[in-house]
Every structure is written in C-alpha cells, then in structure tokens.
Specification:
- 5 copies of one chain form a homopentamer.
- With about 300 residues, the first copy, chain A, is α/β, with parallel strands linked by helices.
- Helix content of chain A is about 45%, strand content about 15%.
- The first copy, chain A, is built from 13 helices and 8 strands.
- Chain A has an 8-stranded parallel beta barrel with strand order 1-2-3-4-5-6-7-8, surrounded by 8 helices.
- The two termini of chain A are about 15 Å apart.
- The interface of A and B includes residues 48, 51, 54 and 114 of A.
Chain lengths: ~300, ~300, ~300, ~300, ~300
C-alpha cells in the first residue's frame, strides 16, 4: 500500500521535475495551483463540440449552445481551464479574461466527411494563444492515422512555437484509422497506452487520453493480451506518459457512478486530472455542478 | 410575446457585445448604422454569379450583366453592401467609392468542373480589400467537403489577416459534398445549423446561410429528426451562430411571398439581415426596387 | 444605326473608364494610341507556338521559325504588340526594343502530355516584363480545368504583381477540360462567354477569346440553347467582359474571307481588336502583309 | 464675381479629379460626404496637445483632459474627424468606432527639449490606422528644418504605406527652424505657401497650414514682398496646394470674429475646410458648440 | 464626500473600460485580481537597481543583493509583481514561476556616463517576456530627453509587440534632461503631469511616475504656477493619465510616515497602486514586511 503510494507519486511528476522552461512552468502553475483545487490536480472543460460534432451535441440542453454560459460554468464550477476553438475564444473570452484559464484548441474539423485518414487541420496559432492570454494550447493528434506524416509535420510546428513562447502543449492523443480499428479499436489498452507514449515522445506537456479498455483484445499485440484490471491498465498508461501530465477524458455522457469510478482509478494511478465535456454540459446546470462537486472530491484526495 | 421579443434580443448580438476590435467595430458600424435602414439590420447584394455560374445568370436581364448597374442599384436601393470579386472591384468600385460599402469576396470558382471535393480558391487578399476601402471581406467555406483540410488552411490565413487589419469577415457557409448529400442535403436543418456553428467556431463576424429545411430528414442525425417548424429551425440556427451576425440567403429567384415569409421568419428569429442576389437582379429594375422596399419593411420592424 | 453605334461605345470601354492605375493607363495608351492605327484598336501578333505546339507550326513557312523575322513583321506590319515567351524576349527583343510593344507571355507549356487537367506553368515574372520594357504581360487561364485551384492561385500572384508594377494584364481565357468538352466544347457560345467573364471577374485588363460558336449546343446550359446569330453571340461576349478590353483570336489558319468576317463582327460588337498568329505567320511575307492590311481596314472603321 | 466663383471651383478639386485610388476615394468620401455637412467641406478636431504641449493646454477646461469627452464632442458637434495619437486611439476610439471618422496622427513629440532641428518621431504606422478603422492618417512635416533629410525619409515610408493601403494622408505642413525664423517666420505668406506646395509635391492628399500672414516680410524672398491682402495670400496658398485639399488651422485660442473671418476667407479661396483644436476645446462645451455652429454656417456656403 | 468618491471612481478606470484586448485584460486581471489584495489595486517591487545604480544600492542590506531573496519577498509579501531585467529573470524566475507575476523590464542602463541626452537601451524583447511567462513588460521613457527621437522609435516597437502579444505595457515615465532641469526639475508637478500624459498618448497600459512636487515652480509653464496642494497635483496627474493605470513610485528610501502619506494621497486621487523598491529592500526583512503591511492597509481602503 505505501509502496503503491510511493509509486503513484513517482508517476505524477511535479512541475519542478518535468524539464519545463520558466514560461511553461509559470503557466502550468497558474492552471494547477491558482485555479480549481489549487492542489496540483486539474479538471478541464473542453467545448469544441460545435465544430467537431455540430450543434447536435447541444440539442438536449439549449443553454449549452451559448459559449458564454459554458465559460461561466467553467469559472463558477472551479474548473482549471476551458478549451475552445479560436472563434469562440475571440468572441467570448474577453468577458472572463483571466478569470478562468483558457486552453486554445489549435486544430479541429467537422465530422461530416468520412474520416478514413483523419487529420485535424490547424485553425489557430500558438501566437493567437499568447495574444489571447491563454495558459495552454491544445492539439489533436490522430495516432495511427494514415495521414500521420502530415499530422506530425503540422504538430511539429506547434511544438516548436509552444517551446518558443513557453506555452504548455496539451495533446488530445486519439488512436484512429483502419489500422487501429483492426487492432482492438480506439479505446483498447494497447491503443491508449501507445497514444499516451506518442504524446510524451513528441513533446507534449499534458496528454488527454480515453480511459483504456483492457478487455478489447481483438488484434492487439501479444503484450496486451491477458488479464489486466482497469486499474493496472490506467497505471501503465500513466507510466507510458513519462513526465507528461495525464488527463483522462470523460467521453460520451455516461452514468455518474461509472464516471466517478473511472475518475478514482485514474487519480489513484497518478493522473493529473480529468477533462470532461459532454458529461458536464449535457446536464442541467444543477446536475452539472453536482457531478463536478463529486469529481472535485475525488481530486481533493490526490494532492501533489 | 414579450418573452419572444426578449429572446430575439438575446440572439442578435449588438456590436458592443461581440468581442470586436475597434477596426471591425468601426467598419460594421458603417455597414449597419450608416447605410441601409441604419437600424442595425442589413441587406446585402452579392454579385459574383458571373464567376460562380457564368453570364447565364444574367441572360434574362441583360442590364444585370453590367457591374456598374448593379453597384448603382445597391447604392440607390439602400443596400448595406455589395459583394464582388477583385476584378469587378478594381474596375468598378472607384465610381461609387464610399457611397455603398464594398464587401470584397476573396475566393470563388467556376461551376464548370464537377465539385466532388469542392474548394473555392483565393483570388484576392484582405490587403486588397483594405486598399480598395472595403468594409468587409467574404469567404466561401464548403462545410463538409472532403477538401476541408485545404479549405480550413486557406481560410485561416484570411481570418488572421482580417484580425490584423480590423476587417470584418463574412463567411458564406455552404454545406457541400457527398457526405452532406447523404445526410439530408445542403439545405437540411442539420446542415445549415452545423454550417452556422462552424463559422462561429472558426471566427467569422457574419455568416451567410441558406434558410434551413427541417423537412429534409433523410440521413440526418437523430437530433434533427422530428417535427420542427421553419421558425424553430431558423431560431436554432441563429443560436448556433453565437455572436456571429446571421445573414439569410435568398437563393434562387423565387416568388415574392415565399421570399418575404422567409425574411420575416429570419428577422423574427434574430437574424441581422438578408443577402439577396438573383432574387434582386434577375428582376427588372422596378420589380427589384419593389421587392427591396418590401424587404426593407420587414427589416424596419426589427431594429436593434 | 445610331442606337447601335451608341451600344458599341458602351461596350468598348475607353481607358478613362476602366479604373486603371496611371501605369497601366500609360502602357495601354502606348499600345493603343502610339502604335498600329493609333485609334484605340489593336492587332497583336502572338508567337509562342514553338513552346505550345513545337516547331511543327512553322513547317510550312521556314522563315516563321526565326523570331527576329516575326518581331520585325510585327513592327513593319503595324502590329500593336508581339507576344512571346521569356527566352525569345531575352534573345530578340533588344534588337527592336521600343519599336514594337512587347507582351511578355508569362506562362506556357508543351502539348506533348495529355491535358486532362490542363494548367499552364509560370515561366517568367511581371518583374521580367518590367526589366525588358514590356508594355503588357500575358497569362493563359484554362477556364473549367480540374486544375482550377492551382491555376487561380498562380494567376493571383500575377495579377497582384501586375497591379503593383502598373503592368497591363492580358488573359488568354481558354475553356478546357472534360467538363467543357461535355458542355458544348471550347468554342461554344456558353464556354467563350463564361471565359470572357471569368477574366473580367478576376481582374484582367484585356482578354483574348476565341470567336464564339452559338451552334455548338450539346450540353450547354438552357440560356445558351436557341437561335443566336454569330453577331449576337460576340456582342454578348463583349458585354460579359465588362470593362475588360476584348481581343478575338484568329485560331487556326483559315480562309481570308472567314477571317475578315469574324473580325468585322467582333469590331462591330465592341471588341478592341484581334490577336492573330498562325493566320499571319503561316503565310508568305506578302500574303501576311496583305491580310494584315485588310484587317487594319476593318479596325480603321471602329475608332474609339 | 462669377469669374471669382469659377476660380474657386477650379481650386478646390473634387474627389473625382485628384488621381485618387479607390480606397483613398472611399475614405475621403466618407469624411467629406457622410459626416459633417456632407457637402464636400470639412472641419476636423485635432487632439494631440497632451503630447505636443502637455496637459497645460487643458488647464483652463479640465473636462478637455478626458479624451472621451473630446471624441464625443467631435461626434456630437458634427466634425468630420478627430485626430489623436495611437495611445488615445487604442484606448478611446472603440467607444465611438465608426461614429466619427478617426484620423490617426502617426508622429508627434513633446515640446520639452529645444527644437533647433525639429523632427516629429513616428509613433504609429499606417497599418495601425487600418487596424483601428481610421479614415485618414496625419503626419507632421517640419518644412525647413535642418532635420529635413530624416524627416523626408520617414515621411516617405508613410506615403508609401498610405498608398498601399488606400489611406488618405493629411500632412501637418509646418515651417520650422532657424532658417524659417530668418525668412519671415513660420506664419509668413512665403513660408505657408511653400509648406502647402511641399505637401503637394510630396504626395499629401490633404494639407493643414496656418493662415498666411502677408505682412510678415522680413527676410522673405522678393516675390513675397509687396502688398498682398489676406485673401490674395490664402488664394495663392490654395493654388500652390494643387490637387491637395487644404485645411486651415485655427492655431491658438483667439477671438470669435478673427477666427470666423479667417474661415470665411479660406473657404472663399477654395480651401476644403478647417482644423480647429484649442479654439474649440479650450472653451466651455456650450461656447465650443456655438463657435462650431458659426463655422458650419461658413462651410455651408461653400459646397462642392 | 460621496462626490469625491465618484470622482475617484471616474479616474481609476476598470479593466472593462480601457479598450484592452483579451490578452492584456487577462494578464492585468491576474496581476490585479489574483495576486496581492485581489481588489484591483497593486503594489510592485522593482528590482533593477543593480543595473541602474550598481550594487551600491544593496550596500546597507546585503541580502538584498540576492535576487532570489527579493523574488521570494515579492511572493511572500503579497506583491502584485516583481520587475527585473532579462538576466535575473532568466536565472531566478523559474524558481517561483507563476507564484508572483513577473514584469520583465525591457530596457535599462548604467548611471556611469553622464546622462546629458538620456536613453535607456533595449535589453530584451516582448517575446522574451512571453517566453518567461511574464504578465507585463516595463519600459523606461525619458520624457524631455534630447534623445526623444530614438527613444520614441524603440518604444514604438515595444508597444507594437506588446499589442501583438496581448502583453500589458508599463511605462516608467521619467522626465529627464537639461530642458526638464530648467523647467522645474524632474519631480515638478509640470514634469510629472506631462510624463503621465505622454505615456497615455503613446499607448501605455500602466504608467509609473514620481509623486509630483507642486512647489517646484522655477521655470514651469504658467499653468503650473500658483498654489496647488499635493492632493490636487496627484489628482491632476491621475486625470492626465486618462485610461492608463497610474503607479506612484516610492523613489529613494524615505521615512515611513512620508511614504504612507504619499500612498494615501495617491490612492485617494485614483491611482491604481504603488511601485516601491529601495523603500522596501533597503530595510531589514521584518521592517520591509511591516511597511508593506501598512501600505496594503492603504490599498485595502481603495478597492475598485
């Protein structure tokens, strides 16, 4: 137990131990120590669904269609940041500038054309993020996509700019493409573990992954075949992220208990926090705040 | 009724509340408050059909072939702007420079080759628009096109330049491509709603959409299946455009009453105005002015 | 008759009414008022067939293979300009520099590979034209080509440079590609009319088109189906070119009377002039001069 | 009298006759035809005294210290523009963006160090003016300063940028320096006449000069020695400004009748308008509006 | 009393009313609302004396020579920011990155050569500040210096970069030079008032001035001659800074009561805060904290 505790502390790196420049450290400090629980954990509110899926994601909760409501929710709910595309940042962030950290999502696409070789085009620059007073940028990397070459190329410019400006870089590391589908799918332990590692190898400061599914074993490499508990899987993923802070995604709107259990396991494993969109804004305001309060209780047990 | 009125006022943002820079605000003020009805509404006259469709669009009304006639019509008819390609702007705008706002349409293409992966190439720059004394630029974004990656890339440069120069950016947000055809088509409520949102997420100041058709439900996502009135649909589209002023397109030449009814519904829903080309210039001069007068009556009921 | 006369004056714009910069006006003035008939009309001698078709075009008249002969012919025959590629301009224009206006053709290609998506690559710059003392540049635009996106992109740079340097831009506006073939072909009234308009919309100062064939109606849009005389067709094309001076191409070597009739109809319709290559240089020197003299007689009847 | 009238019309050029680009024409049209009296005349409110002289210029009228008050005065008083430095434009123009034309003053200096070789350093760019939605830029040229070489060099960049962006350029053409002092001083007919001409020769669109003093003849060249009436002097200055619109400066706060008489003489001579700062804002609000009303009466008699 | 209160609120602008971009607003919000008293006031600790004066300024308090001590003092004392040169920022800020806001001082010089035409050379860029995660940059402008031309030129680049990156710009606005000495000296009401205004006219977001001395009247312009109380003087200076947040400098180490009285008068007049270096670090740690506590008590009475 105490060994496990120590192990956990090894896997969630502190800002002092990550090889960060002063600017990246200052901005991550603001996110992790001056907002939310101020204890080194984080919960982010991503809100680019209007671009990625279209307004259909807001159909059940019309007030979720208004970005102002969402940014206010992020502020009032004690989130550590809200992630939006450039258009919404330009139009809405001024109202709450500085009150909640901004994560400028730099790339994004619609889900209308079929994504056989998915690539998320760049819509904004790290300099846009600096100009807006953002504390981090986000980039979606489609790990395993046949478009890997173009993806890595545009990612590289983002990483370089993020280093030049001292801007923390959060990678939405998403396994995608036919090869992934043939190897256990996008949520398999194999795919998520690989995605976490790719982000670390390529210089992310934080990485957003889905919670791994060790039961999805069709076509995965031998190392991922066998009995793994969910806890073992997420611990491995945290280790693979080596000095890259790990955020676990909420994914589609799910039941409270399932959501909380994944949160507990992730934090126990050494994750830095959570990034929950639809699970939050597809609820009523009160329901959303109740879930957030429960998630914060989880995070409060894992200071660093 | 008063609640509905309040709703309308919520959805049509004022220039003070859009997060605009001084330059964008000054130019939009000129368009919305110093031309047309000067009440915050707008009606634009687009005139790039000679490039997009060829002179065939002028075949029934030869005087429509002469850009000078059209710009004069825009001025005399109390339009809030006339949108043309660079060649016509270079040749004709000087004659009426400053008398009617110029919207320089930055991209455009012929309809000759089949548009399986439509993309509208850039023909002019935001700097061209500045040089000509334009008050806005226009960009056609083909939402859902397989060429999305290249489209977003060239759009991004336009957005950046528009921000740098304080130039309002109007996006012609057009659902297009095989995937759109398979999901209800370009006029479906789903497609138009998504298109309005994409423009907002990517930083448009105004967005031009077609009037949504909630009856087109073949292949649309579940959220768009069901009974929606035209009024409900256009209200949702206005909401999705969050802080992006919405212009409803007239589309092909149609009967007066149908045109006016769409205009009424749009303005009631919180649209900022209309953008009518063929419905105007494919009529005789007198008929055109009569329709415009009726449209202005509609707009006059919706000041902001 | 007097009404027709007035119509013609409407359609052939004077240099004062074209929205020209001082530099473009000065150079066009030299072409139209200090060479040829000095009456506002023009006849150009294009000579890029060695690149476009190869020396086979000179096989019947060996002296036509020598660019020096052609430039001298342009000078002695009272042409308003000679259009060549950069190599010939560099090698031969010095000899007659200033004696006959130079039109530097900026793009060009061989006809060896099949042209399924034709695009004419750039071989020289507007700055080359300035350096050489040219009075205009020429650009071949393949209207309707699947390569439209790349074509428009490279054309745009030429237009921008031409504006920056005050250099008149003549567009060889050529309908091409499978879609054109399926819609009446490259000489159809529809195709030529569209091509003239595209050049105007995109900022050409002059446009070179083929004489339209209203009889080619297979697959053309409804507006072009019906009984149109050749005169009606060329008049429509001149109108579509709105403030872009129109040059009618001679095309392949044809009989004298047919050539002269097309010239008469074109000038009657308000064209600015003619651009005749093979019809001139594929004749013997004397024959060529005789044809030119007849063409000049036509132009002399249409001063502006 | 009628001859004199004609003479006046000769000397105040219309926008159509000034060789303007479309952008400069559009912006000057807005200034001269869409604000103020809308009759082609103009009255500007300059407000850079806080930089040029320090807050002492506001000591008698504390409300004049607040730029917001001044911009509102410009709007409410029907001025054709307000001229400020970049800092005040950045901070205050947004509030009234588009409601009154902005003239961004690009250079300026304090009057603290002695100005033996006066030069006004550049504080902002034409691109700043574009970004802010300004309709003109202002530049102070110290005609006769020993620093002429550096002054002309930095002015040249401004002129080039103003042309590139279609931005009207107003030159504050101020005779200064020891040589001017030795030749009649800064207000002499000689000095003002020369200053008006320098602005025209170097490409200004408008020029601001002081009212000439033909009585100041010590050291002036022979041509300016003799009996000249004030009217003759200002007429000569307007002529020297050849196709450059002339604005007459109010200078220091003076008595109403003297001010009005200079205004009358200037407009009679063909000036386009007036530029009055201290004479306006160093009065109480009511007094200021009363003077402005009288000046507008003068301008109303000189439409163009 | 309530009227005076209102006056104060007029003169200290809120972040919403300053015409700020989102980035400048976010960073100023962090300084004013997430550090120090979090009530819209500020107290800064400048620490560039080692460059400006040499280590002699630390001679009485050796621990003040260690930048680490000073940055820790700024953090522990609840300062709103610490201002240092690039070398110390590079070496020391990482340790406390994000814990206390960094103001990167961009220019600075030694006091060894005589400063007849003082100019403070640029040692770092706004991009350096971005890279380090700074929340503001500082620039020393020597108002009245004969080197005004070079000073304004280098300042202009800083202002432009600060706007491009959304970085707040604090101007150390220092009257200097022989002309200032001849006009009441650097602390005269005239000089300080002018300096505050120059910063505002040239686009500072905050301005640091010395407390004005209305008794220094030798050579000042007439407007500054007369009986002015210290309170009246500082109120005028705050007004002159129009929409530029005003910081009052502590200057040389002085007695507690004098220091506190100036602080009270400044805050009463509408200043945003204080910037105290030697008065703080030339004391023992305990004494420093005691003075800071007293100053914070003053600031706590003036929330906004």
């Amino acid at each position: 137990m105490s060994a496990e505790r120590r192990f956990t502390m090894d896997t969630r790196p502190s800002l002092d131990q990550m090889g960060l420049s002063a600017g990246k450290k200052a901005r991550l400090y603001r996110i992790l120590r001056e907002h939310g629980l101020r204890n080194g954990t984080a919960i982010f509110l991503p809100y680019d669904h209007g671009l990625e899926h279209g307004p259909r994601d807001f159909s059940g909760s019309p007030e979720a269609s208004n970005p102002r409501n969402i940014i206010r929710l992020a502020r009032d709910g004690g989130f550590n940041g809200v992630a939006v595309q450039i258009g919404l940042a330009n139009k809405f962030y001024w109202d709450y500038a500085g009150e909640v950290p901004l994560v400028l999502k730099l790339n994004g696409k619609t889900d209308i054309p079929p994504a056989t070789d998915p690539l998320s085009p760049i819509n904004a620059s790290v300099e846009d993020a600096v100009r807006l007073g953002a504390d981090a940028v986000g980039y979606t990397l489609y790990v395993g996509s046949p478009a890997q070459e173009r993806d890595f190329a545009q990612y590289r410019r983002v990483r370089e700019d993020a280093e030049r400006f001292g801007m923390p870089l959060i990678v939405w590391s998403y396994p995608r493409g036919a090869a992934i589908d043939a190897k256990g799918g996008r949520d398999s332990f194999y795919a998520v573990d690989y995605a976490a590692r790719v982000a670390s190898e390529l210089g992310a400061d934080m990485v957003k992954v889905n919670f791994p599914r060790p039961d999805k074993q069709d076509g995965v490499p031998p190392a991922y075949r066998g009995e793994f508990s969910a806890q073992q899987a997420i611990e491995a993923v945290v280790r693979s992220a080596s000095r890259t802070l790990l955020l676990v995604s909420g994914g589609e709107h799910a039941g409270d208990e399932a959501v909380l259990e994944k949160a507990r396991q992730s934090m126990e494993a050494g994750a830095t926090g959570l990034i929950f969109g639809r699970n939050v804004f597809q609820r009523s305001h009160d329901e959303a705040l109740r879930l957030v309060a429960q998630l914060r209780d989880v995070l409060a047990k894992h200071p660093s």
